[in-house]
Amino acid sequence: MKTTNRKLSLLAYGLCLAAVLYNCKSKEVDPPGSGVYTFPALDKVKMPDQKVSTPAAVSVTAATVTSSTMAAAVSAGLKNIAATGQVPSVVLDASANVGKAIPADKAAAMIAAFTPDVINNLVSKGEMPASLKADVSAAAANPSLQGYMPAYTLPKVNGKPVGGRIGATVAAALSPNSVTDLDACKKAANDAYTAAVAGYDGVKATQIAAVNTAYTQNEVAANAEVAGCQSGIPAKYNALIATAKSDFDAVIAALAASRSVLGEQVYAQQLVLAYVTFGQIVTVYNTLIVAETSACTLTKDAKISAAQAARDGDLSTINANYTATVSAAAKARDQEIASCHNQGNGG
Asked: Is the pTM of this model over 0.85?
């Protein structure tokens, strides 16, 4: 009987020991360093958004040509002389002004120099013999004749009359602080910082790509506008030159018809005035052909320059934001490391 009780006691002890061992295994503590750490200060550090700036507008002012009302009055007066036999005062006044500006022998030489070939070359190419061009320019600039000459203004680009890339430096990323003998929390903070910087790198790269893409689009658009800007200029001024030639021919015909009424001196003075006026207006038109053609190119250059300025300003801001963000992240990381003793098994 005692044997039976002894066996029952041993069995009971065995069951209790098994139960104890089972319960102890289910409550085993996680090994050191396996805790999950959070770093809210570091998580709050973000790269600022960057909008692509619009380049500054480029202003373009067109060239202008203003015909002389005094020259128009003389032309109108010449038309009726043959029919009326009367010389209007505006014609006589013009002849007197020519006499003040151009001596009779110089006037005769200039008239002889304006041969049909010279006139044709002037119309088709805008060219005159150098000596004749100098004489026409001098006469047109004389105060006595300036009122009979056309007035004009050159085109302007950004307010400057037309007659005559710094790449951004990308800031280097700040290197993580070197920390030795990190415990689990400190290592996690440093790893979180490294991952955050990698994210900032991605944001910066995306922002830079957007800025550079916008610049390229602006550059391509500016270059593409040049051909269209320049294409209509020759036709525009060729039409004006053709009109000037037609008006000139009408004056020459009126002078021929009224020569006997005018007399040789006044006739010669009116003829040289007609040549000078015609030579000057064609010279003006050809000057403006060159100026407006150049203005198209200068407008393109100004637009690209404005796009470059916008791009470089944006890149500078992005780099400054990136540097500030990485610095802020490093500061947040250091704060988190300093407080690691409050988290997990760190400290």
From this structure: no
CA atoms within 13 A on the CB side of 75: 21
Report which DSSP code applies to 307: H
Q: How many CA atoms lie within 13 A of 268 on its CB side?
A: 14
For 137, the token pair is: 């320019």
* Burial state string for 41-78 with b = 16 or more CB within 10 A and e = fewer than 16: bbeebebeebebbebeebebbebeeeebebbebbbebb
Question: pLDDT tens-digit profile of 124-148?
Answer: 999 999 999 999 999 999 999 999 9
Query: Which sign, positive or negative, has the C-alpha torsion 120, 124, 126, 128?
Result: negative
Q: What is the 3-state secondary structure (H, E, C) of 157-219?
A: ECCEECCCCCCCCCCCCCCCCCCCCCCHHHHHHHHHHHHHHHHHHHHHHHHHHHHHHHHHHHH
**Dist. CA 305–CA 299, nearest whole Å:** 10
And the tokens for 305? Answer: 């320059």
CB count within 10 Å of CB 205 equals 13
Phi, psi dihedral angles at 183 (to 5 degrees): -85, -175
A 10 A CB-CB count for 192 gives 19
